[in-house]
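Postdoc handover notes: sequence design on the structure in folder B. Input tokens:
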């Protein structure tokens, strides 16, 4: 057998082994991305000091038993409204600190959870909304059992936008959604269509409206300015 044939056979045999080793090395980081770190925690502490808000741990058990960890943060003078904040893929709850500060400064309390397989939450794999939507229902159930909620909204970025929209379909207590940079996943078009059908009903409830165009975040935040005042 020619040397070239030996080389080809060796490559074919070793390639799966190499792929397995690489997957074993990087898999945990891809499946369970960035956890909280000292820098982010320091940024959180500074944000709380600026907004004079109070943070407490908020742990919820998902329907399949996965433990979800996060925070409930209340402003100094809460108005009774709550916002669920959802961040982008491979991040954690601290990825939406800027959004949280804006809302807290205008009296809106916020829930900042680590999604499954992200941050400090449990779970083996993120599903971009398929399981997370039911996680949101569990979060909302727990929130309503511990807080007096006047109005409940959701705000999501990237993967968080997909989770927020899918959550709003199965959780009627979410009165409106602001989202930006919606990540495209195979199932999202179905849920976006369902969410769009519900938009007019939500508008009649004087809720923050869902947007679906290139200016979603700017226009969504404009709605927040109208409701909560200037930043």
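Designed sequence:
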């Amino acid at each position: 057998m020619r040397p070239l044939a030996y080389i080809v056979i060796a490559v074919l045999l070793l390639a799966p082994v190499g792929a397995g080793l690489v997957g074993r090395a990087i898999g945990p980081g891809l499946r369970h991305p960035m956890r909280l770190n000292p820098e982010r925690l320091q940024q959180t502490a500074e944000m709380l000091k600026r907004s004079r808000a109070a943070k407490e741990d908020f742990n919820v058990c998902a329907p399949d038993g996965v433990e979800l960890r996060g925070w409930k943060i209340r402003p100094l003078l809460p108005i009774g409204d709550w916002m669920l904040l959802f961040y982008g893929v491979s991040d954690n709850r601290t990825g939406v600190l800027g959004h949280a500060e804006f809302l807290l400064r205008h009296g809106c309390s916020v829930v900042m959870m680590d999604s499954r397989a992200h941050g400090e939450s449990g779970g083996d794999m993120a599903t971009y909304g398929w399981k997370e939507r039911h996680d949101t229902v569990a979060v909302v159930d727990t929130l309503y059992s511990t807080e007096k909620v006047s109005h409940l909204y959701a705000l999501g970025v990237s993967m968080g936008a997909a989770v927020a929209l899918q959550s709003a379909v199965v959780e009627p207590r979410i009165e409106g959604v602001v989202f930006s940079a919606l990540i495209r996943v195979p199932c999202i078009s179905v849920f976006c269509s369902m969410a769009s059908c519900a938009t007019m009903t939500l508008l009649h409830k004087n809720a923050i409206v869902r947007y679906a165009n290139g200016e979603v975040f700017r226009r969504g935040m404009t709605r927040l300015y109208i409701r909560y005042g200037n930043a």
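Context for whoever picks this up: Residues 3-31 form the longest helix (29 residues). Don't rerun without checking with the PI first.
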